[in-house]
Design brief:
By secondary structure, the chain is of the alpha/beta class. 30% of the residues lie in helices and 25% in strands. The chain has a seven-stranded mixed β-sheet with strand order 1-2-3-4-5-6-7, covered by helices on one side. Strands 8-9-10-11-12 form a five-stranded mixed β-sheet, covered by helices on one side. A hairpin with a 6-residue loop joins strand 2 (17-21) and strand 3. The longest helix has 15 residues, at 47-61. The N and C termini lie far apart (52 Å).
Length: 243
């Protein structure tokens, strides 16, 4: 008997598409199931969390996770990446400068510990950090089999210098936004944010998904186009960006 999304603590967003809200930082991880292939979106905040996510995703999919997309290079989204050994890993072009550079890795470690991740878990994750093999500069279509295709779109910069969104066509269409959109709190703008470009990134998300899509934030509940548009306007006002 197959397990349901809800039994494993996941929310089904549309057919073969779901997400899981993780404890700690309320980070969202996504799953898109194809025929013999599966895409996970973001990897959690530690190797242990990544391993649990992979096990749950593969139980739901009924087969291995073959692809992993990282929406941006912040510790709560990437520290579990090494748990997805063998998967093809994607990120926005330039993400390698964060995940592959010594100084940038140290900044990630420091940020993780400052935000409450245990030092040992941070050390383990940083030592095992994986640089995505595939870097998306514009758009990249993944074929997950069974007629299921997924679009990876480099829509940033905005929340970070390297923001990647994932569009899953269907009825409804689903857009995984990463932290370009946050529902459970005000969008966070750290030192690597590019506020002047953030509203334009949200405009691009709305172009990709349209009015009837379901938008999955990096933190918080699934939202609609109206929410994304309101957040876009609030960010433009907050950062003094002309509309």
């Amino acid at each position: 008997m197959s397990v349901t999304w809800e039994e494993l603590g996941w929310e089904r967003v549309s057919a073969g598409v779901g997400r899981c809200r993780l404890p700690g930082w309320d980070c969202t991880v996504g799953l898109v199931v194809g025929e013999g292939r599966a895409l996970v979106i973001d990897a959690g905040s530690s190797l242990q969390e990544g391993a649990r996510l992979r096990a749950a995703a593969e139980e739901l999919a009924g087969h291995r996770v073959t692809h992993l997309a990282l929406t941006h290079p912040h510790f709560d989204h990437v520290f579990g990446t090494a748990a997805f050994a063998g998967a093809e890993v994607f990120g926005a072009v330039g993400i390698d400068t964060v995940l592959g550079g010594r100084a940038a890795r140290e900044e990630l470690r420091t940020d993780a510990v400052r935000n409450g991740l245990a030092q040992a878990l941070a050390d383990e994750a940083v030592d095992a950090l994986v640089v995505p093999r595939h870097r998306v500069s514009g758009e990249w279509t993944l074929d997950l089999g069974g007629g299921r295709q997924v679009l990876l779109a480099n829509v940033g910069p905005g929340h970070s210098a390297h923001d990647l969104a994932v569009l899953v066509p269907g009825s409804p269409e689903v857009v995984f936004c990463g932290d370009l959109v946050e529902e459970s709190g005000e969008p966070q703008a750290g030192p690597d944010a590019v506020p002047s470009r953030w509203p334009a990134a949200l405009d691009r998300l709305l172009e990709l998904g349209g009015e009837d899509a379901r938008y999955v934030p990096g933190h918080g509940a699934v939202v609609d186009a109206g929410f994304v548009r309101a957040q876009r306007d609030a960010l433009a006002e907050r950062f003094g960006v002309s509309r």
